[in-house]
Write a structure and sequence with these properties.
The protein is α+β, with helices and mostly antiparallel strands. Among the domains are: 109 residues, Beta-Lactamase (2-Layer Sandwich), CATH 3.30.450.20; 153 residues, Reverse transcriptase/Diguanylate cyclase domain (Alpha-Beta Plaits, 2-Layer Sandwich), CATH 3.30.70.270. 48% of the residues lie in helices and 21% in strands. A hairpin with a 2-residue loop joins strand 13 and strand 14. Helix 1 runs antiparallel to helix 8 and helix 10 packs across helix 11.
């Protein structure tokens, strides 16, 4: 019974375990694929950031050299004594005509244009209110200063940044500044050439948190201060690094890769949207995951089917085994099983020197009943008598069997003669109380005669002895009027 309960459950649980292992392995592979996609995106972003950083550094280095050349020239009296057109050619090299440069200007201590790279006659303008002017004026040791974005007053409000250097008199007092105005279109064009997917972003940010340029381009974000954003805190925490966060500007979650320029107060940030990073992986994961879950569920379903099939087979085998051991009509043990029970209980009684009792039950005038009422009625009567017998033996060790025809045997281990007679009388009364009509019986109903025998087995005795004794007692009951219990007496 234990083995029968275990095996179907073992198949089902084994199927579930295998399915879980399959799904777990698939989930592990998909998770590794997700990590690989993230790492590839991080490497791509790093490469793009390096490309942009080196391009900006190279150009800004040229701009810084051009500014220094003007500063050095402004200190040379011979250069200042030259005619305006020659002085302009000496002070301003070809960098002043580079694409995306607005102009190179020299401003005096009051912020007025005194030398203009665009022409011999300087344009009119005063920039004393600009921060790039006041910073150089108030801080002699600033060196190269990169301004925040502003709208140019000389180029119809074109967004620009300025690179400036201080001019000083021989005594160190402020003499003005030299500036190069860089059109922000330079950064816009540079960033537009970096492929970051439909939701990616690249930005150049000052270390003070002011946005210099951002792609996707939106003029409203230029000059915006993001120093309080969570992303900016990451940018200032290390020279370079990567992290995932949600942008404060557009609310898109991205993988950020940032680098702080080593020689410039700028930060380059390249961010690819997670939805773009995982778009291909998500499609593969959905396909593979769905197939694997389907296979897993199918495997579990197959395990349930196999378990159910095995359970049905074991139930059928159990039923066949039961049929082989029981009488099909009455449901009691058959004669073969009776032989096994008698042998087992007789040996146990002989080993323990305990009392062994046996009842022989025989339906009175059963042949006449069959002839009068038919075999179907006879079968019904046999089944009813078998129920009476089964209902009156209650101990687990007691058993009953159909011996043959209308005869039944009841085995009562550890039962003294008085107990055997009591059970036999109960069975007889129960059969009589069925009140099954039997016109051929002297009692007008179906009755039974019962012979009992009690024995304490000897070492050399055989169970057949008690069977013969019970049979002899049954013969006595039949001979003395039927419908009675007779106990074997050795006298």
């Amino acid at each position: 019974m234990w083995r029968g309960r275990l095996e179907p459950q073992a198949i089902i649980w084994g199927g579930i375990f295998i399915a879980l292992v399959m799904v777990s392995l698939c989930a592990t592979v998909l998770y590794e694929g997700r990590l690989d996609a993230m790492e590839r995106a991080r490497e791509t972003s790093r490469n793009l950031a390096l490309i942009a950083e080196r391009d900006i550094e190279r150009n800004f280095e040229l701009y810084a050299l051009s500014l220094q050349a003007v500063v050095d020239g402004m200190r040379d009296p011979d250069v200042l004594a030259l005619p305006p057109h020659m002085r302009r050619q000496v002070l301003f090299d070809r960098a002043a005509t580079a694409k995306y440069l607005g102009a190179m200007l020299v401003l005096d201590a009051s912020g007025n244009i005194v030398i203009d790279s665009n022409g011999d006659i300087p344009r009119q303008g005063n920039f004393a209110d600009r921060r790039y002017f006041t910073v150089q004026r108030d801080n002699p040791d600033v060196g190269l200063y990169i301004s925040d974005p502003f709208r140019s007053r000389l180029r119809n409000g074109s967004p620009s940044i300025a690179l400036t250097r201080r001019l000083s008199h021989p005594d160190g007092s402020f003499a003005g500044i030299v500036l190069i105005a860089v059109n922000l279109e330079y950064f816009h064009t540079l960033f537009a050439g970096l492929s970051l997917g439909p939701h990616g972003s690249v930005a150049l940010i000052g270390r003070d948190g002011v946005m210099v340029m951002r792609q996707p381009y939106d003029l409203r974000t230029i000059g915006r201060n993001i120093s309080n954003a969570s992303t900016f805190h990451h940018f200032r925490s290390a020279p370079e690094g990567s992290f995932s966060d949600t942008a404060s500007i557009d609310g898109v979650r991205r993988l950020y890769l940032f680098r702080n320029f080593p020689d410039l107060p700028l930060i380059i940030m390249v961010a690819e949207a997670e939805r773009d990073i995982f778009a291909g992986w998500r499609q593969r994961a959905l396909t593979i995951g769905s197939l694997m879950v389907g296979f897993g569920l199918g495997f579990v379903a197959l395990a349930f089917l196999l378990g159910a099939q095995l359970r049905r087979r074991m139930r059928a085998e159990s039923e066949l085994q039961m049929l082989a051991r029981t009488d099909g009509l009455t449901g009691l043990n058959n004669r073969r099983t009776l032989g096994e029970i008698l042998d087992q209980e007789w040996r146990r009684a002989r080993r323990t020197r305990s009392m062994f009792s046996l009842l022989f039950v025989d339906i009175d005038r059963f042949k006449a009943y069959n002839d009068a009422y038919g075999h179907q009625a006879g079968d019904d009567a046999l089944a009813a008598v078998a129920r009476c017998i089964g209902e009156n033996i209650r101990r687990p060790a007691d058993s009953a069997a159909r011996y043959g025809g209308e005869e039944f045997v009841v085995v009562l281990p550890d039962t003294p003669p008085a107990g055997a007679e009591l059970i036999a009388e109960q069975i007889r009364e129960a059969i009589s109380d069925l009140a099954i009509e039997h016109a051929g019986s002297e009692y007008g109903r179906v009755t039974a005669s019962i012979g009992t025998a009690c024995w304490v087995p000897e070492q050399d005795s055989d169970v057949s002895a008690v069977i013969r004794a019970a049979d002899e007692a049954l013969y006595t009951a039949k001979a003395t009027g039927r419908n009675k219990v007779s106990t074997f007496s050795s006298a």
